[in-house]
């Protein structure tokens, strides 16, 4: 994923910047497809050993209505230590996004 793509994602998350954590948690746990639409173990078994994290993220998050809220929540909670698949992004993608997301926070004059 290019720096420009990551910067666009960071900018897109601005709309979630001041949404309280408890509201994000409620949205993600109520509406996140990964939490109610899939049997995670079955999805992982179907994916197979040769499936990349990127492919798994695409499968798990396809059509999820709260991808951005999920991503915002994980960036706040996990920061640089983020693990797993959140917001349709892999760990490596989120770790690359994190400094740009933090910089956007500085640009809009707030703190998460």
Give structural notes.
The chain is mainly alpha-helical and 112 residues long. It has one domain (3-108). The protein contains seven helices and no strands. Helix 1 crosses helix 7 and helix 2 (21-31) packs across helix 6 (67-78). The longest helix has 18 residues, at 91-108.
Write the layout of secondary structure elements.
Layout: H1 3-12, H2 21-31, H3 33-36, H4 40-47, H5 53-61, H6 67-78, H7 91-108
Helix pairs in contact: 1-7, 2-6
**What structural category characterises the helix and strand content?**
mainly alpha
Mean pLDDT: 86
Strand content: under 5%
Largest sheet: none
Number of strands: 0
Return the domain count: 1
Estimate the helix proportion, in percent. 55-70%
Helix/strand order, N-terminal first = HHHHHHH
Q: What coarse outline follows from CA principal-axis ratios?
A: globular
Q: Helix segment count?
A: 7
Please name the defining characteristics of this protein.
112 residues; single chain; globular; 7 helices; mainly alpha
